[in-house]
Sequence to fold (188 residues):
Amino acid sequence: MLGVVTLLLALAVSGSATDALRARDIEIRAALPPRGVPAAPDAKVRLQGIFTRAVDVKGMVVSAMGTRWKDLPAQKQKRLLAAFEKRLRLAGVENLEEYGSTVIEYRPEVSSPDGTVKVPTRIVVNGEPTEIEYRMRPDPDAWRIVDITIDGVSTVENYRASFSRVMAKEGVDGLIRRLERGPAEAGT
Fold:
């Protein structure tokens, strides 16, 4: 199985955005514990890495922060990025049991004028369909996810609204503290 995963990862780097998502899915499924067996802590850490490796964390944070990003001192930018990545890592493994039973239908890619590619998918979990669209951009060595739209709701827009609400009350330091505490505290 490791050879297949390695080959698919190599294809994902040189292939399409859809190829990258397919390779990521195969890698995640290969790392999942058997159905009904809870993931060991080291397996969760590995899965967190797989879930977040393809995400353009900085791009998502910069988009969510909007014009506020450039006004942040470098140290706060770094802390905000680390806190956001931690939140993504934890959120990525919240529903491991369900992920193994998903069926994913990849639809034709759509190129955008900004250089990104949209990969529409339909994911079925326990008979319930969900429309998920990945917006991705090419990097020299891989495709990066810059936004995920779930049933018409943009993750970046959702973060932007949540971040704005928290920062209006608690400032950027409050936002960072919430993100550092984890998904339940982030206000999203």
